[in-house]
Amino acid sequence: MVSKRFVLKRLLMLFPVLFGVATVVFAILHLSPGDPAVVIAGERASQEFVNQVRADLGLDDPLWQQYVRFLGEVATFDFGQSYQVNRGVAVSQILTDRLPITIELALLGQFAGLLFGLPLGILSAVKQDTWTDHLSRVGALSGISIPIYWSGPLLILLFAQFLGVLPTSGRIGSAYFVEPVTGLILVDTLLAGNLAAFQSAVIHLLLPVVVLGIYQMALLSRMMRSSMVEVIRQDYMRTARAKGQGSKITVMKHGLRNAFIPVITVIGIQFGSLLGGAVLTETVFEINGIGTLLVDAINRSDYPVVQGTVLVFAVLYTLVNLGVDLTYSVLDPRIEQ
Amino acid sequence: MTGCATRSTRECERPLTDRDIRPSGRTVGRWIGLGGLLGLVVAGVLFPVTGAKQSTDTSFALGVLLFGFGVATWGGAVGFGDSMSTVQNHLGGESEWSREGARQAFAVLTWIGAGWAGTAVVASILLVGI
């Protein structure tokens, strides 16, 4: 059981981390080239108008004043209004609309990775140096080596263009409209009791999830294999077998729990790349999640949207790693000490 | 002695990675001073080229960048460092990384960044006004 002190300490440490990330994002945005006032006013606008826009946005104040104002806004979860992407709309509203889309994609990608990666890794370790192991290793190596921006269009070409069995883009067919409740399309279609829409959503999400899941699966199976190979050689595994326990039970009961600790680490660390991967996947499959929002906001120097989006990414990443940290101590209580 | 090369205090008799070693106020003051000096140099070098506001703004942005990086990584090292080193030991890693060493290193960055940003703020108030 995880102690309250352990959890509280880690929760408290999230605040300096998020404060630091907010500060870094603010600094990088103001050091990078590009003037939001010019973007908003337009390339052909007069200098007076640009100055007027700059003054209206408070961008002509000294930077330290903007920083203090920014911290005040972040502390109250008010990221201001979008300059360009959804002009005039509160950033928190934009994030509320878009975040579930990316979370759904990332979770499904992670689920697919775990669903295929873990059994493949275990099988590969148990059947070490057999054809199963060699095939799984080659598959994993290919999965790690193939970038999303290549595998995505390739799968679209194969399944959408040549075979014509899967759609190329979007989250649901244009014939369906489902009132968003959770923002997660699969859940919303089920809540609406619209099975045809659910089926359409599954078909639409299949390719993006496969693209995201391939990398996760490959990495997790490699990690699971090496970790399991290590564990299988341990004395306690041999003792369990010597006492007459079946090999499957030994692996699942004693091996999996111990082999899982480094895999959990990878899952936590890889969540960041999963979010990064979601940015690419959303772009390739034209899904309007937080990834495409971020790219759009950076291109248009929309400071409030970039700051809000990166902070949300940071919160998600730190929370996932907090979860990973707590899982370690459940799997191996010595870690808490 | 491990880590002592990076300490400027006389009482450096224990490794930098030891627990219970907290930098004295004087040492922190030196780091802040070093940051302040860097902030002043950057603002001073940029001043003839970009003018008062741009030079102090750029110096402030660089200072808070260092400060923010220091705070974020310090928080990460303090909050998750113990688990990281335990997992590392569990995996049999030979790295000499430790929570305390990371905490101290990132604290140095934080203080330097704070001094840097602070000097830039003072320079901005003096040269540009509020």
Automatic annotation (TrEMBL), chain A:
Family annotation (PANTHER family):
DIPEPTIDE TRANSPORT SYSTEM PERMEASE PROTEIN DPPB-RELATED
What GO terms fall under cellular component here? plasma membrane
Q: Which CDD domains match?
A: TM_PBP2
ABC transmembrane type-1 domain spans which residues?
Answer: 99-328
One BP annotation, GO: transmembrane transport
Has UniProt tagged this entry with the keyword Transmembrane?
yes
Transmembrane parts of this sequence: 12-31, 105-126, 138-160, 196-218, 259-280, 310-331
The family classification in the record reads: Belongs to the binding-protein-dependent transport system permease family.
Question: What protein name does the entry list?
Answer: Binding-protein-dependent transport systems inner membrane component
Topology in the lipid bilayer: Multi-pass membrane protein
Could you tell me where this protein is found in the cell?
Cell membrane
* Keyword NAD in record: no
State a single Pfam family of this protein: BPD_transp_1
* Gene3D superfamilies cross-referenced by the UniProt entry: MetI-like (1.10.3720.10)
Q: Which UniProt keywords apply?
A: Cell membrane, Membrane, Transmembrane, Transmembrane helix, Transport
Q: What is the lineage of its organism?
A: Archaea, Methanobacteriati, Methanobacteriota, Stenosarchaea group, Halobacteria
